[in-house]
Amino acid sequence: MTLFLLAAYGFVCAAVYHVCPARFRWVVLLAVSYGFYASRSLLGLPFILTTTLTTWLSARVIGKIGEVSRARLREGKASLSPDEKKKLKAEAKAKQRAWMLGTLLLNFGLLAVLKYTDDVRGWFGREPLGLLLPLGISFYTFQSMGYLLDVYNGKYAPERNPARFALFVSFFPQLIQGPIGRYDRMKEQFETGGAPVNVEKSALLMLWGLFKKMVIADRALPLVSAVFSENAGEWGGAVTVLGVLAYSLQQYCDFSGGIDLVAGIAFNTFAIRKPLVAGIAELFGIRLAENFKRPYFAVSLGDFWRRWHISLGAWMRDYVFYPFELCKPVARLSKGAKKVFGASFARALPAALGNLLVFLLVGVWHGATSNYILWGLYNGVILAFTALMEPTYKRMNESLPRLTASKGFHVFRVLRTFVIVNIGWFFDRCAHAADAFGMLETVVSRPKMAQLSMETLQKLGVSAVDARVLAAGTLLLFAVSLAEENGKDVRGWLAARALPIRWAILMTGVLAVLLMGVWGSGFSEASFIYFNF
After folding, report:
1. DSSP letter string over 204-239?
2. CA distance 287 to 268
3. What residues have CB less than 8 Å from 445, skipping those under 6 apart?
4. Residue 263 has what pLDDT?
5. What is the residue-averaged pLDDT of the chain?
6. DSSP 275
7. Which residues are 277's β-sheet partners?
8. How far is residue 339's CA from residue 148's CA, in Å, rounded to a whole number?
9. Residue 436 burial (CB < 10 Å; 0-12/13-18/19+)?
10. Could you tell me where the beta strands, DSSP code E, fall in 256-309?
11. 162 in Cβ contact with 53 (< 8 Å)
């Protein structure tokens, strides 16, 4: 199934969806979602069904335990002593916790076995087993476990209908590469049939995603593969820097382009101030979580991770960072640190440790190999150090208000963050941590500036035409992103033009993708980077 076929599938399914009565539309969504999943990963169906059914059942049991406990408390309101009430609540909570932990262990254990067995075998020099990795398993597992934790924490009641919950888990635009949704934000939309749809705005967003993916990301892929290949030692530091910049561009356009295709951002005028409707999902009137917000305009590493893969960051924040930061052992550690290092350090310590834990897990989420673990720790250590140094930064900003408020300082912070992020990408892209260190050493010790030539680009798989298209596409991407960063709704502005202008823009975009897109990749060797996470 090519990217255009995916888009066509979305349009056809949306047409069927909108001719159905609103109360039956969720059934259509469930059918087309499972149809899409079966077409891409038939052998993966038992795994997504296992996660769906075990999570739904566990949440129902947790909800029932809570209902029974509250009923017993109401019945014995006058006869039960405070200690008996406390004991009753504790017993109910213990039962709920057992179901919650058991389901978490089952589903995260299933994810770990399928995703990390070969990585762990590699630690010991063993041959990989080549276990099946079901489509979207990381995304639907995290999404389902977030729902379970919300039910356990009493945020909302469990879903009674297993088929409706199955739609939440399997909604096909999310399966490819997220975003990681929240049930309370999706439930009503599935039930009511979604919001009114602007097909032209949806088409513009999907076209922009295809442009970023097929024209920019897939064209940069050969250069990235060549620079980061086993023969990387022949290239000097200048070409190595070019390679990591190309990877930065490729990864962003691949990931955000896919999100634009299936779950990008759109402004909707239907009584919503800042909704998150998008791509294929927008054709169904379904609002998905925002997943990208121009990350390369970030002014700090923390700001970058609040803009990149936002739904994963939010999941880690709500279900890992805050529970860890507020747990009793961390509170005791912070209290002890106050006596030795002072109040400022003690206040920052939980956040510093939380960042280390979160980014270690984010690294492992990408893969249980040394490069990903070090990439996670690299980000975690910088963010931990930033948290500990926050009082110092605050005093500096207060003492130099004119400097810190200047546009020049803002640009400096953006460039500094860009460099920090790209150093981290060496660990993300290299097969082994040692390769990343070797390439970084090359950048410093052997620049070989003379290698930067058209001849070298051709050796790296980039023709003169490819180079021009990449340069033009990158400039267009920068211009659009800069306008959006300054508050301009580019897609809304285009959609507000006269009909001939709108259709001329659409047709120009289609021709650009048809003529300049890299074809033949589909979902194979040049698939989305996060397609099978």
Report:
1. HHHHHHHIIIIIIIHHHHHHHHHHTSTTGGGS-HHH
2. 10
3. 237
4. 47
5. 87
6. -
7. 287
8. 39
9. buried
10. none
11. yes
Residue 329 is predicted with a pLDDT of 94
Residues 69, 276: Cα–Cα separation, whole Å? 38
351-392 pLDDT per residue, tens: 999 999 999 999 999 999 999 999 999 999 999 999 998 888
**Average pLDDT of the segment spanning 392-402:** 77
**What per-residue confidence (pLDDT) applies to 11?**
67
Phi, psi of 432 (to 5 degrees): -135, 150
Instruction: For CA atoms 494, 414, 262, 26, give the dihedral sign.
Output: negative
What pLDDT sits at residue 225? 93
Q: Which of 26, 49, 20 is nearest to 188 (CA)?
A: 26
Give the integer Cα–Cα distance in Å for 82 and 88: 10
Query: Do residues 137 and 114 make contact, with C-beta atoms less than 8 angstroms apart?
Result: yes
Distance CA 133, CA 246 (A): 28
The answer to whether 243 and 235 are in contact (CB under 8 A) is: yes
Q: Is the pLDDT reported for residue 430 higher than 60?
A: yes
Instruction: Considering only residues 423 and 518, tell me which one the structure prediction assigns the higher pLDDT.
Output: 423
- Say if CB 528 and CB 177 are below 8 A apart: yes
* Cβ neighbours, 10 Å, residue 60: 18
Please state, in angstroms and rounded to a whole number, the distance separating the CA atoms of residues 296 and 299.
Answer: 9
Question: Is the separation of the CB atoms in 309 and 325 below 8 Å?
Answer: no
Reading the block at residue 82, the tokens are 């405070």
Which amino acid belongs to residue 201? Answer: K
Average pLDDT over residues 292-317: 95
| Beta-bridge partner residues of 287 | 277
Q: Which of 287, 220, 301, 205 is nearest to 253 (CA)?
A: 220
Q: For residue 80, what are its two tokens?
A: 């039960």
Residue 212, Cβ neighbours under 10 Å: how many?
26
Of 254, 205, 248, 207, nearest in space to 224 by CA: 248
Q: What is the pTM of this model?
A: 0.90
pLDDT surpassing 70 at residue 201: yes
| 292: β partners | 308
Q: Is residue 46 reached through a cis peptide bond, with omega within 30 degrees of 0 on the bond before it? A: no
Task: Give CA–CA dist 448/346, Å, rounded.
Answer: 47
SS3 284: coil
Quote the CA–CA distance of 460 and 453 in Å, as a whole number. 11
Helices (H), 228-342: 237-263, 279-283, 301-305, 310-316, 322-325, 328-341
Question: Which bin fits 510, alpha (ψ -120 to 50), beta or left (φ > 0)?
Answer: alpha
Lowest mean pLDDT among 40-49, 106-115, 187-196, 305-314: 187-196
Which stretches within 76-198 are classed as H helix?
82-123, 137-152, 162-170, 172-175, 183-192
